[in-house]
Amino acid sequence: MSLGHLLKVPKVGVQHTLFSCSLEASLDLFQDAPSPLVPSMPTPHPSMGIQSCPSLTFLPSPRSHPLAPQCDISSQLPLPTRPHQPHDTIYHSGSPSRRALCWPALSLWPATCHQTRRVPPSEARRLTQACCPQTSVRYNIPAAFSSLPAIKSLGLRGVSCISLTHLDGSPASHQVLQSVAYHLGPHLQSLCLAGGSPTEASFVALLLSCPALRSLDVSGCNSLLASGLLLAQPETAQRVRQALSGLCELNLAGLRDLTDCSFNRLSSCAPSLQRLSLAYCHLTFELLPAQGSTGPQASSPSQLSFRNLLRFVKERAGRLHALDLSGTGLSPEALQALGQVAGLQLQELRLHSCRDLSTEAVVALCRQQPGLTSLDLSGCSELSDGALLAVSRSLRHLQHLSLRKLQRLTDAGCTGLGGLWELRSLDMAECCLVSGRELARALGSVRGAPPPLASLSLAYCSSLQVLQLPQLRRLSLSLLPALTDKGLVAMARGCPSLERLALSHCSHLSDEGWAQAAGFWPRLQHLNLSSCSQLTEQTLDTIGQACKQIQMLDVAMCPGISMAAVRRFQAQLPQVTCVQSRFVGGADLTLTL
Length: 593
Prior knowledge:
By secondary structure, the protein is of the alpha/beta class. Helix 15 (537-546) runs parallel beside helix 16 (563-572).
């Protein structure tokens, strides 16, 4: 069967997602969309969902629409002009009766080639499979009758990672779940039902059809727990346990009706669980059992207790590696009890918005769990410099650290960051007392090879010093009014590998600064300059000439840039997939406030 036949898809309604091939970001196909939409920025830390990887996204061409009936794939493949990069895009182009797959960047040919060649269909299929491995692509499928033929096609292609949207108790959703179970179930490895409302019966039937499932996301699926009887029948639970024997990752975030009983039933069906998210579930923190107490504790049928969770962690300590308790109101005593569980060796821990945590509790955690590689303490507003110093001192293998909105953090806490030799991403946005002076000094103090830091966010910090991070690829300095043209040029020289840069609301930046800085950033792909009030169309011309790989640009609310300049910029750089230009040219915002 030809690849063209496999990619035939039915028409769907306006703003219904059909295919979204991305792990770092997803992209929707809209009927009647005038131009391709934009992938969202990847998170710098690993999520509790599927791991990040380079992505390929199907997009509509301005000349045609990929959802047209009888869509066929031709073998015309233009050669790329640069090596393959993450978020490269596959475009549908050509006449309505004949389409072409076009890779704007693919490292199968030399970067100096600019011509186009025709290849036989067999080679086109081979190249497509090589660039779109089905194990690393997620497909978003709406629960609609129009999706049924596409699900069958995806089953023939061996797709193993899907996300179902708009699920409810309707006949359409029921048939979609049945079709997924029949066509995709035997080889499905990752299933996301986040925010849907499937019925208990259809959910159980789907699980029984997925013996290879390794990742399950039912966050926000409150309909599953409304009756309190999910998996209450022992024979049903046993069958689901056999089907989910290989499940490694379970996301139960935002389930408001989750209780001890329902959690125990769900977790008992996943004996191989390694990653668990209970973010924003309502945890109760009654008095913990006495030290050394081994007596049985009754599970609550009406609430989710930390005592029950702690018992689960103790039972799975040798296997559990990642835990997300963001927004649960975790107390310092509970964190200490969790960290000292015998045999527990966490690698990833997310405690976003646990506002009651104390610096002393974090210090104890770092001592108890030295193997952490990813830690999120964003929004834990009681933490001070001592917490960051303990992290720098004890977590020597840390790769991802998020400290966003820690408003008690100062430069003194940043002095030890140079000791984190393996740190790859750091988020200190909205730490308003951090000037960046000690941070720049600490990150530049590593002798020998430069630090491997690839992502840094210092948005809304008080000021910024010169950064010397040659491997940095993502940088956010938004809401830094003190950033001047001189600082911009110094930053460009110190960070020449940037691919994503956010400088929104930096009101002192001008055309002159960009004229000097842009030449240092030939790899720049994503740029946010919204609300930079001094910039004019001259900056657009500079970016267009120096940053040939630019794909997305945000110049919203820049009064010195006109719509005519935006259209001219897009015409000169056809690889640009999106330019955000809301209220450019000094538009009156009175009616929008």
